[in-house]
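User: Could you check the structure of this?
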Amino acid sequence: MQHAKTQGRRIIFYLLDGYAQHGFAAALEPLRLANDILRRPYYSWRILTRDGEPARTSCGLRMVAEGGLTSELHGLHQPDPPDMIVVCGGSAIPAADAKAEGWLRLSRRARVPVAALAGGLYSLARAGLLEGRQCAVHWEHFPDFSERFLTVNARQTAFEIDRDVYTCAGGSAPFDMVLRVVEDDLGPDVSNRICELALSERVRTAGDRQRLPLQTRVGIDNRQLIDIIERMEENLDEPLKLADLTPSTGLSRRQVERLFKRELGRSPKRYYLQMRLERAHLLLVNASLPIFEIAVACGFSSASHFSRTYRESYGCTPQHTRLQAREQSRSARPSQAPDRQFPATKVA
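Assistant: Sure, the predicted structure tokens are below.
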């Protein structure tokens, strides 16, 4: 977004069914606080859904919308379109929607910046708005997203800003991403004051990691071991031999095996295999890729080898895991939760 427009900024939040309330609120809060600091409604926002019906959150609440896409399509041809569109998703992968994706394409032709939170990223990608772009993908979605959209530069970061396309992994990171928008509009004094009011001690920048550092996640601080594990993470689809994983460490094969056994309680080969199986599990739960394609994406030579190895580790077949995930998804749909209706929020 370009620097300060005297009449203010108008933002559209487009809510997908099953969107995460946490991420939506985190994105909205910097705008509200900016208005409080300026003592005027510099930012205003509208909440839209596909058909103007209330959107359900991932926790079963219901947010009233102020309109649907049909009326908004006409607004794109007006002389004063919105200043940004934010597609709010959740942990679920949204279904393809030609109407919404067409609206997003028209918005980009009208030079409206677009943003996506969590699963909302899929809507932008399906609309073709991320071709050749750098974007942030939640680590749970990353294996599936990377396999689906090969021409997108997907990264496991908190958020990314690639020209006028803003993407965010979700969680609390939307606060940091929208804060950058506010700083670009109103300057660092306002953004710093927002951090003080929100008790935000650390603000992430574009490209910051979204997961805990490897040494914290794994519980180790041996730099040589961390280097090897990082190389493993980067080569899950085509597993490297142990000799190719260790040249920078200066350790012999025997030394590496002893190091893994002492620090992690298993051999390098076993640890590497478990990493590949974990990625396969994420793909089975979140993606619709055929089992054979998942096997290849995780470094297995055949679907039968993959299925056998997976069953030994998880106690069930890949097909059973996928079936269970689909059943759980159906039973946990927000429509099964009681309605708790909240009015839409808007700055006059």
